[in-house]
Amino acid sequence: MTRALAVLALALTVSRCGPALDPLSDAAITIHADLAGTTAAMVVVEVTAPDITTPLVFNIPVDSGVASGTITIPAGSNRTITIHAYDVNSVETHRGSTTVSIVPGTNPALSMVLTPLNGDQPITATIGHITVAVTPATPTVSRGATTALAATITDSNGNRVTGTVSWATRNPGVATVSTTGVVTGVGAGQTTIVATYQGAAGSATVTVP
To answer: Residue 10 belongs to what domain range?
Structure first.
């Protein structure tokens, strides 16, 4: 019997222990779940931990039998991630849980099985990461001139993730950056331009001669 596959991508960055979502310190988890061959039609993710007072609950959108979305959670130790699947009548069909420690940077991939609760076939899940890449990586821009940067978001399988990044400059005295990634040279020197997507970040080093 063919198993439906669920792929969870986990992007980890500098963490803090609190429920507020800070794009510079929380962990972004991209979830992709193929529900084909099962009665599952809805996916709910619940995250608990000793330092998370109220459990975090996320509804993952399902389109044409595929659940896909990104959630953001505080990184830290003893994070219990529980995935629930429900049918069209809101009856729970599958459940799986794993406890992991989320650290800054990329974590090793993990696997878990969503056990069927009604005789359905199991769903195999894997946990990986997402990355953000900025191109070009080392552009040069003259004072008063502009150049455009692009950010690409990919999951642990190399698939593109659709999303809008936030742009920032480390030194606005050297170069500024717009909300769409357009860099303007201001003064001579080098600075870092960073693109952040719900906890994952990529950067480029800009030189202004």
So the answer is: 4-127
At 134, give phi and psi (nearest 5°).
Answer: -110, 130
Is pTM beyond 0.70? Reply is: no
Same domain, 32 and 114: yes
DSSP 8-state symbol, 144:
T
CATH of the domain at 135: 2.60.40.1080
The tokens 């001669």 sit on which residue?
209
pLDDT per 10-residue tile (average), the chain, 209 residues: 39 32 57 82 93 93 78 85 94 93 64 87 74 92 97 79 89 97 97 84 93
Distance CA 19, CA 69 (A): 19
Q: What span, in angstroms and rounded, lies between the C-alpha atoms of 166 and 161?
A: 15
Instruction: Mark whether 18 and 108 lie in a shared domain.
Output: yes
Asked if 121 and 143 sit in the same domain, the reply is no
* CA-to-CA dists, residue 127 to 33, 70, 139, angstroms: 11, 13, 34
Contacts of 48 (CB under 8 A, 6+ apart): 55, 56, 79, 80, 82
Sequence-ordered list of residues with C-beta below 8 angstroms from that of 176, at least 6 positions apart, any chain: 169, 183, 184, 186
In the block, which residue shows the tokens 């609190």?
Answer: 18
